[in-house]
Design a protein that fits this description.
The protein is α+β, with helices and mostly antiparallel strands. It contains 19 helices and 31 strands.
């Protein structure tokens, strides 16, 4: 081919399509599906292959110096030496594994020896204390233990926390290649195959039944390494014992019926984190039985979630139960990071661009706003319309008083331990190996990847970008010798008129939104690919016909000045500027004319810490109108007025500023409008 440039476009889901090319064979260099599992177009790279740079690396460094790297000091009563996953007599359920599930990839991505040493005892104890029958995990108590406030000691045999530790061990293997993981997992899964008929996934708690997809994911991963046939038998058994998500999503009515309410049927109601984890189960199971109904079920679930519970930030009203579309309903931090992981896995298995678009929506909006800049405190719930973060009675289903203040342990401490997987796993999925022995950049962020391509040659690609704030992404190839492989690039569904240029030479073919461009050529050291993703403004309608303003992967929110107050156990935030603004309905007809995009006056130069009001790299100015009747109610923004409102003569039109949602703490993201 010489230096000729070939671009193929993949539309939507790649599984089973002729366009997937060599997908039936799979990648030659990394762990991917072996027969009889359905082929998948992409596969995760070993931890350490992807190095974050720029603001993204800085974000991980802040996590390392914040509660992610110091949780054993900050929360010793649970993740200290008494934890059951270290052999102790203390907490023995999910919180210890949750922490390590985020700390381990962070440690190995940053190559931070101190953090690796914090991870090591948890992994070593699990690998070296497996019982003869194959059981792993905290040793069950012979007699009921003495209860201690805030410590979850039992049930130690529960299947659910083991699923988290299986993810930890999988990541440890991907970072180190330690073969002990394969031996321990094999013995444990034989134990599961013997025990599950007697004590099914839901025996000890309903969490195991709802989250069986996480168990299944690791079983199939191990099968791809060992080829042991019993693992397929176990996979079928886990599929049978897991909540029937495909059936529920397709056949049992829409998700509007699955709400937590007083007197609701708990078996049919959706818990917010269960849904975030369970939504991937049909696609994980699809690999065993590649029937279209599993893919349709997930698509329908997302459509129903948006229709009945959706929020502008990409999550849903669920505090902790599903709670509708009102923009003051909370969204739990665990929900955000678990949904991100589900989207990462669904993208890997299907190649569906929609999952990548949704992943960026969460990563660049919902994720950064729910923790403080120093990563020393977090919210339990975030609100799309959040105008005060204070101790106050809210109409949440759970944690009605302390749900929105920032603290280490406010709300349930599950989020204190689980939030850490968000950014590290996002980094780990910026790049993936493709089935044609190429590389894929399906989500964008400043980074560098080193991986094997073609016949096993190693290349490094540096990705330079100010995305998601900027429109350009520049890839520079480093290779010791020329090598031919395909570079897969996602064209987001929101992008029109995307452009690709290689070494300054534009490619004339039109790149369609919602597709994957496959750039296949003979690459030489120093080759440069420039991807331009023009960002135009768009709107979406939400509760009471309110409207959100979006541009590229970012949702924009009203800039509200903040006053922070620190208390002994938590921090409150109050507004220092008005918040009750509506947008002009007429301006929505010509967004380019009515909404001016520019650099944020507070931050005229690029910053390595963009996710706060002071440093927001970009802002939008427009006109708004204050609604005097829209006031605080029960410690939060009152019921949002129906749109459009009729404008009164004494309501002046004012200049207002919108900033990226992820840079805000206080915000209006679902705006009423006036005509």
């Amino acid at each position: 081919m010489g230096n000729a440039l070939i671009v193929w476009l993949f539309v939507g889901t790649l599984i089973g399509s002729a366009a997937a090319g060599s997908a039936a064979q799979g990648n030659s260099h990394y762990i991917t599906n072996r027969a009889p599992l359905a082929a998948k177009p992409y596969t995760e790279l070993p931890i350490g292959s992807i190095e974050p740079t720029g603001w993204l690396r800085r974000q991980l460094e802040i996590m390392a110096s914040g509660m992610t790297g110091r949780l054993d000091e900050l929360y010793p009563q649970v993740v200290g030496p008494r934890n059951g996953w270290l052999g102790g007599d203390g907490d023995g359920w999910e919180r210890g594994p949750y922490w390590i599930d985020g700390l381990l990839p962070l440690a190995y991505i940053l190559k931070d020896r101190a953090l690796i040493e914090k991870v090591r005892p948890w992994v070593e104890w699990t690998l070296t204390h497996q019982t003869k029958d194959g059981y792993i995990g905290p040793v069950p108590f012979e007699t009921p233990p003495t209860p201690e406030p805030g410590i979850q000691k039992s049930p130690r045999r529960d299947w659910w926390p083991k699923m988290v530790m299986l993810k930890v061990l999988q990541q440890y293997y991907m970072a180190t290649g330690d073969e002990r993981v394969i031996d321990v997992m094999t013995k444990y899964f034989r134990y599961q195959l013997r025990e599950l008929p007697k004590t099914p996934l839901g025996h000890w708690s309903f969490w195991g039944n709802r989250r069986g997809g996480d168990n299944l994911l690791v079983v199939l991963w191990l099968y791809n390494i060992t080829g042991d046939g019993f693992l397929l038998d176990l996979a079928e058994l886990i599929g049978e014992q897991t909540h029937p998500y495909t059936e529920i999503f397709l056949e049992r009515g829409d998700i509007a019926l699955h709400r937590y309410e007083q007197g609701a049927d708990g078996a049919s109601a959706f818990h917010c984190v269960n849904l975030a984890q369970g939504i991937k189960e049909p696609i994980v199971y699809y690999q065993l039985h590649p029937e279209d109904k599993h893919l349709r079920a997930v698509k329908k679930a997302f459509a129903d979630i948006r229709k009945h519970h959706g929020q502008p930030h990409g999550l849903y009203g669920a505090d902790e139960g599903m709670h509708g579309r009102v923009p003051t309903q909370g969204s739990e931090f665990c929900t955000c990071v678990e949904m991100m992981f589900s989207l990462e896995k669904m993208l890997e298995i299907t190649g569906d661009v929609a999952f990548a678009d949704h992943l960026e929506l969460l990563a660049y909006n919902a994720l950064p706003t729910q923790a403080t800049d120093d990563y020393m405190a977090r919210q339990y719930f975030q609100q799309a319309n959040q105008v005060t973060c204070a101790m106050h009675m809210h109409n949440f289903f759970d944690h009605t008083i302390d749900g929105v203040v920032f603290g280490l342990l406010t709300g349930y401490p599950c989020c204190t331990c689980n939030l850490h997987q968000g950014w590290p796993k996002f980094v780990g999925h910026l790049w993936m190996a493709s089935a044609d022995n190429g590389l894929a950049a399906l989500v964008y962020g400043p980074s560098k990847v080193t991986a094997k391509v073609a016949q096993g040659q190693t290349v490094t690609i540096t990705e330079q970008t100010n995305y998601p704030f900027g429109e350009s992404v520049r890839f520079t190839v480093a290779a010791s010798d020329p090598v031919t492989f395909a570079l897969h690039l996602r064209i987001p569904a929101w992008c029109r008129d995307a452009k690709i240029a290689v070494n300054g030479r534009p490619f004339e073919h039109k790149l369609e939104a919602g597709q994957i461009a496959r750039v296949d050529r003979r690459w030489s050291d120093g080759d440069v690919v420039e991807l331009t993703l023009p960002m135009t403004m768009r709107t979406q309608r939400w509760h009471e016909n309110s409207v959100s303003i979006e541009r590229g992967p970012l949702v924009y929110a009203l800039q509200i000045e903040e006053t922070w107050t620190t208390h002994e156990q938590y921090r409150e935030v109050q507004p220092a500027s008005p918040w009750n603004y509506a947008l002009l309905e007429a301006s929505l007809k010509d967004l380019d004319a009515a909404y001016a995009v520019g650099a944020n006056n507070h931050s005229p130069v690029p910053t390595l810490e963009p996710w706060n009001l002071r440093n927001a790299p970009i802002a939008i100015t427009t006109k708004g109108v204050r609604l005097p009747h829209w006031q605080l109610y029960s410690g939060m923004a009152g019921p949002i007025p129906w749109s459009p409102q009729g404008k009164q003569d004494d309501w002046p039109i004012e200049d207002i500023t919108l900033v990226p949602y992820g840079c805000s703490t206080l915000r209006i993201a679902a705006f009423p409008t006036v005509r």
